[in-house]
Amino acid sequence: EWKRKREDWITRYGIQSELGREDTKSKTIFWDDNSVSVFDPVLCELMYDWFVPKGGKILDPFAGGSVRGIVAEEMGYKYVGIDLSHKQILANQKQSSKPFWISGDADKELFHLKGDFDFVFTCPPYYDLEVYSTSPYDLSNMKEKQFDDKLESILYKSAIRLKDNRFFGIVVSEVRNSYKTGDYHIGSYKGLVWKTINMCERHGLKFYNDMILFNSQHQASRVGKTYFERNRKIPSVHQNVLIFVKGN
Asked: Considering the entire predicted model, what is its pTM?
């Protein structure tokens, strides 16, 4: 049922969320597959249906592809999405003119927005797992400490724009370090999930729902045995969907 609904969203509205990211460099390469990650429209549908008042306004400070904006507008919500890549914004606009797409650095653009929002829903870069551009303002280009500081600043400014008694949703996943000891890659987790939770709670958001989006295990099953026997690491097959609340 989930697959059927996902295909329906994509075909009915001509969603091509991968457009605008042709130059992305991904570290999640399996065999000959170098495709970029595409956000799931069915997850959008559920989150909007569950956590947004009817006709509400949605803010997305890491807009990326077109999915979250198109689904929001077609469900009757108002969507404002900010993305650093002007190329990405143009690709999104070609797919739909209904969402309000803003080209720029969310850390700056959030100051200029007018009005408050009923839901924040976003998916920031997972450190440098996918590198989207060479811009010095691009989080995917930053070192870990700089990334953390920039992410927290944007989450804080987004929380300010959220109305009281409303929800704040972030889709995020763990990322491994690339530290080496000799020829051995230690690869411990960077802690992006718990860092994100702490960032939000430091700025008045209460951690309210913890969900996972179960991804296809097909790729993990293909490399799982080798991956585990080489370094005792388990392939990941999920992303975290974190929901916070501001107020009551």
From this structure: 0.89
